[in-house]
Automatic annotation (TrEMBL):
Superkingdom of source: Bacteria
A Pfam family assignment: Peptidase_M61_N
Domain Peptidase M61 N-terminal stretches: 28-203
InterPro entries cross-referenced by the UniProt entry: Peptidase_M4/M1_CTD_sf, Peptidase_M61_catalytic, Peptidase_M61_N
Residue intervals of the Peptidase M61 catalytic domain: 300-405
Protein name: Peptidase M61
Organism of derivation: Chryseobacterium gallinarum
């Protein structure tokens, strides 16, 4: 999500050097963050053993969680392949994000330079930086491996071994387990490319705090060039959020380990910028503001939203995401689920868990309504989802109208079930059916949800998600004893709610 305001080997170790003798059944990479030249990092790899006459090497065009072309290949230069004798092997750049490597079976080493995608949050740009990488020599490295590491189209679904050369004293904050080889070298493994790019890392002098929430171990890692020992304060806020999310999700967090990687940059400007990207077991959060006092609200909005993504699309998703094509992906129809329902949970959880007042909840709904009106609400959400890359000017409506559709769906489910179940229960049922390693067929999801719930729910999806009928806010809010003044865009409590409205409201928001 992009929100502005995701072998066997023998070692011989010499000082500052690693020689690895591997089985050749994995990608072996070395990334040198210590010896940077002209703000660029050197990356080298040994391909897996193979018999291919040529191979297509790919750096992602875009990644799951973003719906615009990022073209990470634009940061790659000086791409060179050599054999075991150091003789150069022919390569040719096919486009921004791919290279053809000839005589691949005899390639011993490929090396290239990587420039960072951003160096400051102060620059006035609407590009999402939480999916890219940033290098500040001797200070900090925010790393998303999709911008440094690639794969051959002909050689997929195999492990990765990475050797990381870094500053002495730097610590790797990540959901992956980094092993210290010597003072300036770490090693990490990933079972495949998808896991690697799903596991960002923050490299710097550590300011970290560990939490235990239920059965989940949570790492909070913080970087600011001036502020030190701040992770504990942030961790206290995150712990409160996670405990409430745990209760909201039925008493258990669906992940055993999670990492919050937080980069903060001071600004002379008022307000703040928050940019986050979800991953299966971690979140990258980038913040810029004139004061650190904003962090509590920012964490509630951005970090909470990103953590809820462990439900969807990370556990509940279609085949298009399960078999993601990093160069030419086919998009799913269900951004209403991946982003809309995630944003709704972010808004709904604080009032349901009594973290905020009823007035604050009403204001958050009003804000969504006002923001929704900035977009074309005659568009079908399923069609918009399939064409999200071409409809970038409409994409952010999934966080506005999508959340409001989630609100209406929640009320409707509670009404039909006699107040027994809502969207919280629906998402848990979907996660049980389409959990890790499983996926749904894109065209069948609405029918599957209908089978899980009530026949009337199919009409809801047909009218408001596949179709373009206006969100029925006035009608649905009236069911729970709220008055929606469409002219003033204001929401207030009904002065004389009946017992049915009150009971449904209590089931919905615990008020």
């Amino acid at each position: 999500m992009n929100n502005f305001i995701k072998l066997l080997f023998v070692l011989v170790i010499f000082p500052n050097t690693i020689i690895a003798q591997s089985s050749g059944k994995n990608y072996e990479y070395t990334i040198d963050f210590l010896h940077m030249t002209d703000d660029e990092v050197t990356v080298s790899l040994t391909p897996p053993k193979n018999n291919f006459k040529q191979g297509k090497f790919i750096i992602p065009k875009l990644i799951p969680g973003f719906y615009q072309a990022m073209n990470f290949g634009q940061y790659i230069s000086q791409f060179v392949a050599t054999d075991k004798n150091g003789k150069e092997i022919q390569t040719e750049r096919l486009d921004t994000n791919s290279w053809m490597v000839h005589d691949l079976k005899n390639v011993n080493k490929i090396s290239y330079q990587v420039a960072d995608g951003w160096d400051s949050l102060e620059k006035d740009t609407h590009e999402a930086r939480s999916a890219g990488s940033m290098f500040i020599k001797d200070s900090v490295f925010v790393i998303n491996y999709n911008s440094l590491i690639g794969y051959f189209e002909e050689i997929k679904e195999i492990p990765y071994q990475l050797n990381i050369i870094k500053n002495k004293g730097f610590y790797a904050s990540s959901a992956l387990d980094y092993q210290k080889i010597n003072e300036i070298t770490d090693r990490v493994w990933a079972k495949d490319y998808r896991q690697l790019v799903d596991s960002p890392v923050l490299y710097c002098i550590p300011d970290t705090t560990w939490l235990k929430v239920g059965n989940t171990e949570v790492l909070v890692s913080f970087y600011n060039k001036k502020e030190r020992h701040y992770s504990k304060k942030i961790a206290d806020e995150i712990q409160n959020i996670l405990k409430n999310q745990q209760a909201y999700l039925g008493g258990k967090l669906p992940v055993d380990k999670y990492a919050f990687l937080i980069y903060y940059e001071a600004s002379r400007e008022e307000g703040y910028l928050g940019d986050g990207l979800e991953h299966s077991k971690s979140t990258v959060c980038l913040y810029r503001s004139g004061s650190m006092n904003f962090l509590s609200d920012a964490l509630r909005r951005v970090a909470s939203h990103e953590f809820f993504h462990i439900i969807t699309p990370l556990n509940i998703h279609s085949g298009e995401i399960q078999h993601y094509d990093f160069l030419n992906p086919t998009l799913s129809r269900h951004l209403w689920l991946y982003e809309g329902m995630t944003e709704y949970a972010t808004v709904h959880m604080p009032i349901k868990q009594k973290m905020i007042s009823l007035d604050d909840f009403e204001r958050s709904i009003e804000e969504k309504i006002r923001n929704m009106k900035e977009f074309d609400n005659t568009l079908s959400f399923t069609e918009l989802s399939k064409n999200a890359m071409e409809k970038q000017d409409q994409y952010m409506n999934f966080y506005q109208k999508g959340a409001l559709l989630g609100l209406c769906l929640d009320i409707r489910l509670r009404e039909l079930s006699g107040r027994k179940t809502g969207t919280q229960d629906l998402m848990l049922k979907l996660m049980q059916k389409y959990g890790e390693g499983k996926y749904f067929n894109d065209d069948e999801l609405f029918d599957e949800i209908t089978k899980m719930t009530f026949p009337e729910i199919r009409a809801f999806f047909r009218d408001f998600v596949e179709g373009s009928q206006p969100v029925p806010l006035k009608e649905y809010l009236a069911k729970v004893g709220f008055i929606y003044d469409e002219t003033q865009e204001k929401i207030s409590l009904s002065p004389h709610p009946d017992p049915k409205q009150l009971a449904l409201r209590r089931a919905w928001i615990n008020q």
